[in-house]
Amino acid sequence: MSTPDVDVDVNQNQNQNKNVKAEDILCPLAEYEECDFSKLLEKPRLLNIDRQRSLDERSLSELSIGISPRHATRAIDLNSSRFFEQLDSICSPLGRRSGFSTPRSQIGFDPHPMVAEAWEALRRSLVYFRGQPVGTIAALDNTEENLNYDQVFVRDFVPSALAFLMNGEPEIVKNFILKTLRLQSWEKKIDRFQLGEGVMPASFKVLHDPVRNNETLIADFGESAIGRVAPVDSGFWWIILLRAYTKSTGDTSLAELPECQKGMRLILSLCLSEGFDTFPTLLCADGCCMIDRRMGVYGYPIEIQALFFMALRCALLLLKQDDEGKEFIERIVKRLHALSYHMRSYFWLDLKQLNDIYRFKTEEYSHTAVNKFNVMPDSLPEWVFDFMPVYGGYFIGNVSPARMDFRWFCLGNCIAILSSLATPEQSTAIMDLIESRWEELVGEMPLKVCYPAMETHEWRIITGCDPKNTRWSYHNGGSWPVLLWLLTAACVKIGRPQIARRAIEIAEARLLKDHWPEYYDGKLGRYIGKQSRKAQTWSIAGYLVAKMMLEDPSHLGMIAIEEDKQMKPILRRSNSWTL
User: Fold this and answer.
1) From the UniProt record, which GO molecular function terms apply (predicted)?
2) What is the Rg, in whole angstroms, of the alpha carbon atoms belonging to the chain?
3) Number of domains composing the chain
4) Is position 568 within any domain?
5) What is the 3-state secondary structure (H, E, C) of 374-433?
6) 302-337 confidence digits (pLDDT tens)
7) 35 located within any domain
8) Which CATH number belongs to the domain containing residue 367 in this structure?
9) pTM, whole model, 2 decimals?
10) Would you give the DSSP letter of residue 292?
11) What residues make up the domain containing 136?
12) Contacts of 141 (CB under 8 A, 6+ apart)
């Protein structure tokens, strides 16, 4: 099944770029990331990288877009000259670093005592292949059976990669991108069925042969996973991470490699292929993403749709304008318009939309139907009426024929903010919801992966009596510290960092003392998860990224994309459904 691992030689391309100034070949972030998608088809597109700063001043000044008057006094003053003076004061001659006393940091901040411990733990998790670091192990908990926690997971490595990029250590991220790219080219079979060529692995492991003094990579594309489901999110995270590396370092040579260009096209081919779908969203099986067990997320889960949207926007910035690239850019632009309309119209829920659904008529026919998916108002769960605040809203978990999953999913909503799938008004409403429902979504340990938990008969039917996903545990309403980095990035993007700071302070009271658990159980997240691994790497890395993001908001540029201001404003669903 496996093929020999061959390193891609990028030294020649890197040497050619060493002496080229960023301003000679690159344009400001806002010029292309805030343009109309369709304009990318009309003129050559340059990669928008700033070699000295993770996010240019123009974009930083717009982070407060969408802040309602009610929150104006709480927003960061990103336009003040003092703000940029403070940012400039913490820059090293080689660019921005984390501001923490790590081995690579040159700045004399007095960090929280947990920071040094976290960096030591993160470095202990490094995995090496033939002498080069290629990722971080999922967990270093020697008190439990390894299972697959001794592997490098694509989704798990993302916060680790961001931490190293923010600290000025991009080499491990480049190695990871190239190694997973090589694994993508392997033949992938489950039983007698061959997977698509573009599928990225869920994880990989380095096998050491002391007899032959050799090392090999073993990848899992879903054939060893619980339920044998291929990871739909891995390819999206790979594209997002490639853009983060490019944005952070200014090294365009990696993304411009023919192998990386082909890897992106293979991933996009899987997602943009035509079929029987009547929606622009991606149809997925249960267990295809972070929630990798049966949890009723089959269909069109918000996590996948948000990651899909963000990966498409990142690909627009990374694909070359050659013949093959132009073809994909045209398909991406069309899909982005359709996807953003669909998600903002049909997945968005606030008090008014909830009231509209409550009053839906059913069995409507023809294009004039208001209740397009024939959702039964009696299927509305009782909890959602109390959960929905007067000010606030969120993207619900799933929408498909006669079915709406009203559960809150943290990752999908945070990615919607970071990718600008959510409008500025929707982004603000999501933060309003988090503040209004702080006890439910944050509690005593941030952050609920989904809310609320399924119980009794519903739990038995939907999870299949899964003993790991009992109520308020694991993916069924468990609290996951790794989500801190996503919350923090979203808060910084819309100018409300005090929300993230409050959540981080709650986590700091326990995370180190509890030895960095994978997740917490209980309605408030009070208890270490019953099967939670200790020394969980992405819990460690998520904390570090959150801290560094608050200390230096310019890091946001590598993971956030500004709104496309030229797009036609979306119609609210109460209007669009009657057209």
Assistant:
1) endo-alpha-N-acetylgalactosaminidase activity; sucrose alpha-glucosidase activity
2) 23
3) 1
4) no
5) CCCHHHCCCHHHHHCCCCCEEECCEEECCEEECCEEHHHHHHHHHHCCCCHHHHHHHHHH
6) 999 999 999 999 999 999 999 899 999 999 999 999
7) no
8) 1.50.10.10
9) 0.81
10) -
11) 113-558
12) 149, 533, 534, 535, 536
